[in-house]
Amino acid sequence: MLLTLNLNDPRPLHEQVASAIRHAIAEGSYSAGDRLPPARDLADALGINANTVLRALRELRDEGVLEFRRGRGVSVASVVEGRLAILTKARELLEEARRYGYSRDDLIEIVKELP
């Protein structure tokens, strides 16, 4: 898995890691059941603390994107691909809105106004 972080990105590192993993899954680099490299290996490759990677992985687990299995590591959950694509695009839209000064609540109001 080739992940990169943007040092100019104002988001916390764990959010950037989670976003990069979501993107890799959405692009097909990983599919349901595929194992991810250990958190320590990802952290070493990115030059960040392993706890930062673990925080990102836990976030993705809570979203249902990843599964943690004792003795088997972390793998991609069998998620509905459409849901994952929508989640990815929604996150990208939220990031874009933030760049323009809109909050999450502002974005929700804009979406509610759509026909």
UniProtKB/TrEMBL annotation:
Residues 11-79 form the HTH gntR-type domain. InterPro entries: Tscrpt_reg_HTH_GntR (IPR000524), WH-like_DNA-bd_sf (IPR036388), WH_DNA-bd_sf (IPR036390). Gene3D superfamilies: Winged helix-like DNA-binding domain superfamily/Winged helix DNA-binding domain. The keyword Transcription applies. CDD domains: WHTH_GntR (cd07377). Keywords: DNA-binding, Transcription, Transcription regulation. GO terms for molecular function: DNA binding; DNA-binding transcription factor activity. PROSITE patterns: HTH_GNTR. This is GntR family transcriptional regulator. It comes from Nonomuraea soli.
